[in-house]
Amino acid sequence: MKVVAFATDNPANRHLLLALAREHDLAAVFNPLPRRSGAAGKLKTLQQKRTSLGGLWVALHKLADSRIPVGWQGKRRMREAQAAFFAEADAAYEAALGDRTKPVADVDDLAFVEEIRTLAPDVVICSGGPIYRAPLIRACGLMINYHTGISPIYNGAETNWWAYAHGHPQLCGGTLMVMNEAVDGGDILAHHFTGCEPDDDPADLFCKAILGGIGLYGELLTDLKAQRRMTGVKQPRPFFYLRGWDWTVLQALAVERRLALAKKKGIRLPERTVRYWRAETAEDAQRDFEREIVRTVAG
Questions:
Q1: What is the residue extent of each domain of the chain?
Q2: How is residue 235 annotated by DSSP?
Q3: Among candidates 138, 279, 124, 150, which has minimal Cα distance to 212?
Q4: Share of the chain above pLDDT 90, in %
Q5: Domain spanning 2-33+41-297: which superfamily?
Q6: Is 297:222 a contact under the CB 8 Å cutoff?
């Protein structure tokens, strides 16, 4: 079974892909490159955000990632956590998968879509990247996405950050789903709930979600290779749909406060995984999904 991966290039995804390549035929890895804009483009975006969100919101957003540390520093902690969890990933990746990895400037480019069609993968797995459009999704055949957040409660960007800031550590984790044109909106196949230790912050929980995703991807690929049936749960509309510009210093301060409280109280939550795709019927999968969501939200 030929497997192809789309993944942003970072230590977490390198670790994930290395683990999957040990057990499965990972034929190619494509790294979607971020779309960069010059000074004029950045200024235009800033002006648009000031118009749509307001100057105060833009200032609060910028303060969350300023040189003056105020509250929990998300981007810095993500770098630190990935370096700690996946310390050997970079060197090992280059040796094992470097020659199978290709950066892609525009995944929507018709020439790239045709390249994927010609490659004819049996399964495409995704971890991060831009919004994948319909022509590419159709060219891939079966396309599976791992979203580091618990859908449909938290969809969009930095969702485990938001769950923690809202005081919902039980809703930190990842969701395995079939890819479609909606952002994080495909049929749900599984949930991995990371659990939480008193010292865990959202960056640690992101890394734990990636580790859970390795297990889920590995099990699903094994089942697909054995031609076992796969049952999904139609995803309802998200409760929260979050964008990068929604995050501000107010949420960073909330994370900082909740971390102090978690350490003081010694809050611990167990890790668990729920595989809906192995349900006998769609009705069974739906029932299991509803039970788990209610159970988790209720804490």
A1: 2-33+41-297
A2: -
A3: 150
A4: 83
A5: Formyl transferase, N-terminal domain (3.40.50.170)
A6: no
